[in-house]
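1st attempt posting a full record on here, be nice pls
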Amino acid sequence: MIPLFPKKEPINLGCTLVDLDLLFAESDYITLHIPKTKETTHIINKESLSKMKPNARIINCARGGTIDESALAEAIAEGKIAGAALDVFEEEPLKESKLRKHENIILTPHLGASTAEAQVNVAVDVAEQIRDVLLGLPARSAVNIPGLTPDVMEKMRPYLQLAETLGNLVGQLAGGVLNG
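the predicted structure (as C-alpha cells):
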C-alpha cells in the first residue's frame, strides 16, 4: 500500500485522510493530482481498478504514466468501472490506443497551460510575485508549502524569516551548499 503522505504529516484542510484501498473502494470519482514518480507510475492499474465500484470514474489531467492505459481500457470494456476522462498519456501525443475505442472515455490533447489566456495569467502572476518579494513581502506561493491565507502567512512571517536566516547560517558554517 502506498501512503498518501509518506514523508510528513498532512496539514488539516478539512479532508478525511484514507488509505488508497479505501479510496479506490468507496470513490465515485477519482481525480489524480500527483507527479509521475517511481511510486506513482501506474498507481491506477489492474489491481486498483479491480477494487473500484462499477460506477467509478477516473479523471487525469496531472501526468501521463500514472495510469496503466491498457488496464483502464480493459476495465471499462468489461464494465468494471464506468468511465474516464484523460488529457495526459504515457506517450504524447496519443497515437493508436485501446483508449480510443470506448464511448465512456473522454480524451483531449494535453493542453495544460497552452491557451494564450493561461500563458498571460501565469506571466502576470509570476511578475506580481517577484515584485512582492523584491518589495520585502513574503512569497505567496513557495513550491514547498501549501497555499495559505494572507492572515496565516502574516503570523508565519517571523518563523519563515527565522528559517531562512538559520538556513543561511548553516550554509555558511558548512562552507557552502549542502548536498544530500
